[in-house]
């Protein structure tokens, strides 16, 4: 198949802008006429230094990162940060941090943190993640070292509609892996923001960490050095060999976002794309079913079911097969929840999503 014949709805790694890939093809062989491919440059060269600094500079412009925040580009994925956070933000295993668990990823993060600190679960425990519960159900700890939440749960499609109001003076920590740069971010409200690049802003191999400077310098002595924010912040994230290719791609995607009109353009696109899918589901008389509460629905990962409980499995298998034969790819829901999931990250355009909604309507007409 040709790239122009398919739409990739993968949850990550995910579709990248075609312009970025075309430029990357050239850079892979010969970066800016140096005769050396970008992957072949030393991470200690002035050329790579420029790639890294331009990448960080573009990110700073895109979301107006205040001067008292550092941007780190690390390895280890979002999962690495699950451990890095307690190891860098607390001094001992007696400290408590508040965790909002609204789906798989915040749950994994809380479990990882339990190895190093006491975790207070802010929300009532549940196995069904279908909403961000109302403030009246939150149980915050006054002495918590930080308050953690996942802005967008990739598996369950639960997204915080806005920054949770956890009170003045708290260190707010946020996993934005799956909705990073899909809407403006008020960085000044956070202690730490982190995001793996492989969904909205690049390929796997680099994780962005934005951290307020006063939180740096408190790393525990037994923290693995590659997760050590103090060390990495002091050396522009070059303690060891980074994934140079991923940093290059991240920089190129950030420039692409800027050219598209920045995060407000991405926000408008996200609203258009998700509304297109929500509308088909809402007008399907229950043929399609989205389990997430309206005020917590993700604009970037839309999980839904097809048909009724009796014929669901068969219909969903047919849905996926027919979608695939039309070039609508990687729509299978996460193995832990089943069903269908359409991931609508930045590189996907409304006309791509239209192909899905057209198919959804036709499939429903045929099967209902
Ligand atoms: N956080 C969120 C919201 C995710 O969706 C994922 C992965 O999909 C992760 C964290 C873990 O990222 P990684 O696989 O890069 O460790």
TrEMBL record:
> This chain belongs to which protein, by name?
Phosphoserine aminotransferase
Which NCBIfam families does the annotation name?
PRK05355.1, serC_1
Q: Which domain of life is it from?
A: Eukaryota
| Amino-acid biosynthesis recorded as keyword | yes
Its UniProt pathway annotation is:
Amino-acid biosynthesis; L-serine biosynthesis; L-serine from 3-phospho-D-glycerate: step 2/3
Q: Which cofactor does it need?
A: pyridoxal 5'-phosphate
Q: Give the UniProt family note.
A: Belongs to the class-V pyridoxal-phosphate-dependent aminotransferase family. SerC subfamily.
Q: Which reaction does it catalyse?
A: O-phospho-L-serine + 2-oxoglutarate = 3-phosphooxypyruvate + L-glutamate; 4-(phosphooxy)-L-threonine + 2-oxoglutarate = (R)-3-hydroxy-2-oxo-4-phosphooxybutanoate + L-glutamate
Keyword annotations of the record:
Amino-acid biosynthesis, Aminotransferase, Pyridoxal phosphate, Serine biosynthesis, Transferase
């Amino acid at each position: 198949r040709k790239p122009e014949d398919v739409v990739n709805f993968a949850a990550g790694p995910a579709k990248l802008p075609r312009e970025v890939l075309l430029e990357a093809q050239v850079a892979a062989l010969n970066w800016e006429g140096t005769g050396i491919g970008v992957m072949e440059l030393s991470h200690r060269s002035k050329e790579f230094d420029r790639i890294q600094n331009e990448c960080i500079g573009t990110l700073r412009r895109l979301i107006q990162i205040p001067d008292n925040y550092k941007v780190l580009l690390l390895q280890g994925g979002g999962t690495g940060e699950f451990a890095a956070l307690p190891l860098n933000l607390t001094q001992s295993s007696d400290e408590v941090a508040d965790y909002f668990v609204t789906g798989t990823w915040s749950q994994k993060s809380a479990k990882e943190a339990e190895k190093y600190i006491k975790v207070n679960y802010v929300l009532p425990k549940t196995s069904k993640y279908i909403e961000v519960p109302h403030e009246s159900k939150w149980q915050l700890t006054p002495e918590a070292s930080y308050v953690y939440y996942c802005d967008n749960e990739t598996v369950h499609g639960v997204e915080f509609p806005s920054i949770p109001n956890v009170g003045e003076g708290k260190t707010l920590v946020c996993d934005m892996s799956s909705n990073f740069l899909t809407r403006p971010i008020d960085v000044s409200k956070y202690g730490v923001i982190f995001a793996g690049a492989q969904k909205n802003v690049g390929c796997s191999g680099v994780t962005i960490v934005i951290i307020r400077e006063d939180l740096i310098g408190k790393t525990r002595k037994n923290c693995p050095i590659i997760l050590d924010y103090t060390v990495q912040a002091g050396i522009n994230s070059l303690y060891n060999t980074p994934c140079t290719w991923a940093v290059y791609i991240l920089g190129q995607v950030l420039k692409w976002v800027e050219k598209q009109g920045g995060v407000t353009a991405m926000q408008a696109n996200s609203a258009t794309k998700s509304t297109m899918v929500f509308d088909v589901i809402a007008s399907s008389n229950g043929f399609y079913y989205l389990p997430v509460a309206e005020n917590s629905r993700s604009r970037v990962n839309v999980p839904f079911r097809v048909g009724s409980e009796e014929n669901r499995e068969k219909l969903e298998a047919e849905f996926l097969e027919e979608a695939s034969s039309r070039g609508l790819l990687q729509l299978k829901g996460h193995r832990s929840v089943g069903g269908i999931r359409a991931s609508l990250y930045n590189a996907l355009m409304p006309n791509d999503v239209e192909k899905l909604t057209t198919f959804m309507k036709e499939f429903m007409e045929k099967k209902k």
